[in-house]
Amino acid sequence: MTLSLRVAIVGAGPAGIYAGNILTSAVRDRGGEVDIDLFESLPAPYGLIRYGVAPDHPRIKGIVNSLHEMLDAGVIRLIANVEIGRDLSIDELHDHYDAVILATGAVRDATLDLPGIDLPGSYGAADFVSWYDGHPDVPRTWPLEAEQIAVIGNGNVALDVARVLAKHPADLRSTDAPANVLAGLEASPVTDVHVFGRRGPAEVKFTPIELRELGEVPNVDLIVSDEDFAAVDASLAPNNQVKIMLRTMESWRTRERTGAPRRLHLHFFHSPVEVLGDGRVEGMRFERTEPVPAADGGTPGAVRGTGEFRDYPVQAVYRAVGYFGSPVIGAPFDERRGVVPNAGGRVLDERGEAVPGLYATGWIKRGPVGLIGHTKSDAMETIEHLVADAVSGRLTAPAVADRDAVLELLADREVEVTTWDGWLALDAHERALGAADAHPRERVKVVPREEQVARSRAGILTR
């Protein structure tokens, strides 16, 4: 059977772009043709690669090069600055496409249910990341007023947040950090950033690269506690990656302190109990934990409370305990898990039955876990099921035959759509700003949404 499909993908981050690229190959391998429209709520593509990766991570941002090639090939049509559920409904997408793939990711902070967590001075890491990455829909300023800061979490986002908070702004001037972010960090009075993990050093969730970068922050002393390593045996680590990280952290125990004006502390075996303060954050209370012995039924990584409590006099708390998905209006959503309910990428309704022509991939499908490699395999599974449904006749042909009808509908609603050509114009403008900066760099991000849209739609290049 020769396939001829029109598919809408919602979300222009890695999950959506990979899904489009894999779908193109899968259909063409069968001798078929596919038209793909990639919808994005922001004026620019790339999702968390643009707005969720710390500005001093150029190696990770190199992923953009491969994503650029996929979109620049011209098979996938970018329709950006369009909010599905507001500018177009899911039902309207079904009218125009054989299938719809949700790839909206997870951009909200997971909750942390603690007394005092909502005090002024307590923040979600995702919001802070959006600020320092120049997301157009967050405030331009951030209240950087604390000298002592607690970061709760032991994943890569926790390390990113801690590193950016502790780093001297001069060391970020070579990155694409927007001017308002550099100005905000310049005014920060921070002296100490404390990162807290509930379990031990062998159970961290970050990667060796992230950890190594933490130890390379200029003019910042890195401090770990001897007591956190007393019961840790690197030779018993479950894999080489953990062994490398344990050796790295062990080396920091004996590193001579330089007397740097800023310090970054790693604390383990600390379970958060309460955010302290009268009217705003004034401290953080933790219960000291310990490994549960195998004789007591403990499994690797299991900890229990010791009854010993410790208070830290911090003036700000950042929770980096994970991301959480947001619902797409008109699509099923699991409020408990923060995902679209699905079976292998086929979206399920409240009865557990597959919704015809509706699929999911990426973090909105499986939750905010895994790296880029997982995103690719995730998309392959979803596309495999979509193609199988097309071959078996389970997809309904779109009621609207004209491919450009969806653009006409958006124009009638006065939605200021941005396109791939518009992104190329905005990209060139940002690169020109970077080249002309007092500290030349790859680019300087344009932050305001209205300016992004105007540059994209007019195709203005600043040379």
TrEMBL record:
It comes from the Bacteria. It holds the Pfam family Pyr_redox_2. Keywords: FAD, Flavoprotein, NADP, Oxidoreductase. FAD binds at A15, E40, L48, I84, W363, G370, L371, I372. InterPro entries: FAD/NAD-bd_sf (IPR036188), FAD/NAD-binding_dom (IPR023753), Ferredox_Rdtase (IPR055275), Ferredox_Rdtase_adrenod (IPR021163). It is an enzyme of class 1 (oxidoreductase). It catalyses: 2 reduced [2Fe-2S]-[ferredoxin] + NADP(+) + H(+) = 2 oxidized [2Fe-2S]-[ferredoxin] + NADPH. GO terms for molecular function: ferredoxin-NADP+ reductase activity. Its EC number is 1.18.1.2. Residues 6-169 form the FAD/NAD(P)-binding domain. Its cofactor is FAD. NADP(+) binds at N154, G155, N156, V157, R198, R199, E210, G370. Belongs to the ferredoxin--NADP reductase type 1 family. This is ferredoxin--NADP(+) reductase. It comes from Agromyces sp. G08B096. The lineage of its organism: Bacteria, Bacillati, Actinomycetota, Actinomycetes, Micrococcales.
